[in-house]
């Protein structure tokens, strides 16, 4: 019975975290245990346990006598997340290059190379493939603990950027080329170059995110 409850709590945890990462739950939005339990077709107990875990991670915020809300992250939060990504993704790129990549990474690279380089470019599709590409780097690194840390940071990054709804097509094209260069360096087993390209890519991404977020915040 305990094992079943643990599995249900894990299912609820992954589902709620995915909803936050995909923007189905917005910063500041109040959560309802009953509604979540009904939509996920789970009992309220595993949902409650999942919410507690997400509060401990800082993704949700429990306010006494008011309720539980999706956390609002500040510019300072985004900077800290960026520093975490530099450390985690730089290491993942080196480990992935040491192993020579993976089928998942090659598939993402092929998708990136197939994207049109013109006005017909779908920036949201390019962003989706880009996120899959970053995830594939961690899969190729073969370090489960590193991948777990990245998954937590990714959710928080998504929270910080939910208020930015428009993606610049010109910058997206540059990002695609950066991703392709990183992927090729990993497949070529060039650890130094892969690490440096990831570092440069994330630094440029941070500058763009900060400008976009500050513009939204006014």
Question: Secondary-structure blueprint of this entry?
Answer:
Blueprint: H1 2-21, E1 30-31, H2 33-40, H3 44-56, E2 60-63, E3 67-70, H4 75-99, H5 103-114, H6 123-141, H7 144-161, H8 169-187, H9 191-217
Antiparallel strand pairs: 1-3, 2-3
Describe the structure using short key phrases.
mainly alpha, three-stranded antiparallel β-sheet, 9 helices, globular
Order of neighbouring strands in the sheet with most strands: 1-3-2
What is the oligomer described by this structure? single chain
- Number of DSSP E strands: 3
Rg, alpha carbons: 19 Å
Tally of individual helices: 9
Q: Provide the low-confidence segments as ranges.
A: none
Beta-strand percent range: under 5%
Q: Please state the average pLDDT score.
A: 87
Largest sheet features: 3 strands, antiparallel
Coarse structural class? mainly alpha
Describe the protein in words.
- The chain has 218 residues and is mostly helical.
- 74% of the residues lie in helices and 5% in strands.
- A hairpin with a 3-residue loop joins strand 2 and strand 3.
- It starts with a helix and ends with a helix.
- The relative contact order is 0.13.
- The mean pLDDT is 87.
Summarize this entry quickly.
The protein has nine helices and three strands.
């Amino acid at each position: 019975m305990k094992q079943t409850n643990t599995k249900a709590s894990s299912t609820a945890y992954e589902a709620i975290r995915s909803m936050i990462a995909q923007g189905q739950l917005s910063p500041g939005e109040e959560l309802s245990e009953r509604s979540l339990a009904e939509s996920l077709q789970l009992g309220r107990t595993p949902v409650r346990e999942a919410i507690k875990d997400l509060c401990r991670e800082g993704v949700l915020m429990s306010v006494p006598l008011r309720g539980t809300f999706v956390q609002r992250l500040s510019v300072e939060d985004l900077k800290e997340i960026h520093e975490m990504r530099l450390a985690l993704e730089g290491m993942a790129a080196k480990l992935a290059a040491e192993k020579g990549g993976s089928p998942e990474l090659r598939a993402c690279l092929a998708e990136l190379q197939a994207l049109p380089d013109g006005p017909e470019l779908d920036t949201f599709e390019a962003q989706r493939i880009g996120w899959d590409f970053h995830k594939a780097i961690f899969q190729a690194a073969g370090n489960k603990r590193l991948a777990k840390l990245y998954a937590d940071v990714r959710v928080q990054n998504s929270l910080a950027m939910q208020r930015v709804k428009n993606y610049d097509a010109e910058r997206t094209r540059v990002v695609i080329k950066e991703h392709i260069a990183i992927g090729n360096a990993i497949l070529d087993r060039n650890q130094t170059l892969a690490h440096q390209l990831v570092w440069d890519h994330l630094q440029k991404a941070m500058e763009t995110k900060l400008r976009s977020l500050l513009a939204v915040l006014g």
